[in-house]
Design a protein that fits this description.
By secondary structure, the protein is of the alpha+beta class. The protein is built from 15 helices and 12 strands. The mean pLDDT is about 90.
């Protein structure tokens, strides 16, 4: 029988324990543990949520990896065509983890109404395009249908639609400059078939999605000439490795760009979230540990007579220390229990009801995204329990300084 655990349970269950002088301090310690795990859960959920949401949005507009010509890889506008008939298209046979390979071609232009105009990048795509990203952020209408000889349907962002005072199914006039300075601009009419809003202002402000055949006609390209290829991956964390594999599978005249390479500032910025999260976790564990040390010392000093009696009956210092460490572990677990309940509830409310909103120009999202895995929850709880427990071991040595002869006489 584990008599240390038995005595610890009796102490916890006793009425005197709940109404003792140490009761307020114990409640403060439990509250500190609960608040600590709440803040840690929220920090991890929001940090991971922002990272995943921002990188998913960028991949939705640009793909995880782009295959382009060397001579136009720094421009959003496709200037030199690539032959669509490549060994890696429509599928990389030798590379695992690739979700889709899709063609694209970009053309710079201006959308005009009677009173306003907006500069846009017309992104032409084909029937192989993965629409799942834009379907998620579709506000009105539908994605264009490319299964017809000509498609004048386009997707526009809610931002551009509002600026130009347009609505769904309106016809919009687009002007595109010719590649040769001597030629007049081309004017084309398109129908707004769908309106999207991703909250990513950098792209929402100027990206129009339509048929790649329109871009090919504007550039005088053949149907087998495209601006490049977008590669979508199953796992973003493998983007660097898969990018290198893709590079060795494409021709010598082609280059591959990952979105991490194309937008280093954005990804350096979101990496800082990890540092902030680790800092918050460290601070919360230290605060919780200090509160638990205080509670443990109060519990020990409040039961000096009991410690003296146990020593007189033959208990050694290690056994008595175990009693109080069991007691402290119970308090930590109680704080963790309530902290998890409250913390996960707050995360759930934000996930389903989008209570907290953000400025999309700063954070690239309109509402605070949250994401947390079961693994993260388990690691946070185990880490907090273990570190707080380790912090209590040294203060528990105060028990070795208590002498039975002096403590029992005050009983």
């Amino acid at each position: 029988m584990n008599y240390e655990l038995f005595i610890a349970k009796r102490i916890i269950a006793g009425k005197k324990y709940k109404s003792s002088i140490s009761s307020p301090i114990i409640k403060i310690a439990i509250t500190a543990i609960a608040l600590g795990i709440i803040i840690m859960l929220i920090a991890v959920a929001t940090g991971a949520g922002l990272q995943y949401k921002i990188r998913d949005k960028m991949a939705g507009f640009k793909g995880h990896i782009q295959i382009v010509n060397y001579d136009n890889n720094n421009s959003d506008v496709s200037t030199t065509p690539i032959d669509k008939n490549q060994e890696f298209y429509p599928k990389f046979d030798n590379i695992l983890g690739i979700k889709n390979v899709q063609v694209f071609a970009n053309k710079g232009g201006i959308l005009r109404t009677k009173t306003d105009f907006e500069g846009i990048i017309f992104k032409g795509v084909s029937t192989d395009y993965d629409w799942s990203f834009f379907e998620e952020y579709l506000v009105e209408g539908k994605v264009p249908n490319f299964n017809q000889p000509r498609t004048r349907e386009v997707l526009l962002s809610e931002t551009v639609v509002n600026r130009l005072h347009l609505k769904l199914n309106d016809t919009i006039l687009a002007t595109f400059l010719k590649t040769t300075m001597s030629k007049l601009p081309s004017n084309k009419k398109y129908i707004v078939s769908g309106i999207y809003n991703t909250g990513f202002a950098q792209f929402d402000n100027n990206v129009m999605i339509g048929d790649i055949r329109e871009v090919q006609k504007l550039n005088k390209w053949t149907e087998n000439e495209v601006g490049g290829f977008e590669v979508l991956l199953d796992d973003f964390d493998e983007i660097e490795a898969k990018g290198n594999e893709v590079y060795y599978q494409i021709g010598a005249t082609l280059n591959r760009k990952t979105i991490v390479d194309a937008y280093p500032n954005v990804f350096e910025w979101i990496k800082l979230f990890d540092n902030n999260v680790w800092f918050i976790i460290a601070i919360m564990i230290v605060i919780a540990g200090i509160n638990m040390i205080t509670a443990l010392l109060v519990l020990i000093l409040e039961r000096v007579q009991m410690i003296g009696i146990l020593k007189a009956l033959g208990s050694n210092n290690t056994s008595i220390r175990k009693i109080f460490l069991y007691n402290a572990s119970y308090l930590i677990l109680k704080g963790l229990f309530w902290g998890n309940i409250i913390g996960l509830s707050i995360i759930g409310i934000q996930y389903f009801f989008k209570v907290i909103s953000l400025n999309p120009e700063t954070y690239y999202v309109t509402t605070m995204p949250v994401y947390i895995s079961v693994t993260a929850i388990i690691l946070l709880n185990l880490g907090t329990l273990l570190l707080c427990f380790l912090m209590l071991i040294l203060p528990s040595y105060i028990i070795t300084k208590i002498e039975p002869s002096r403590s029992i006489k005050f009983a």
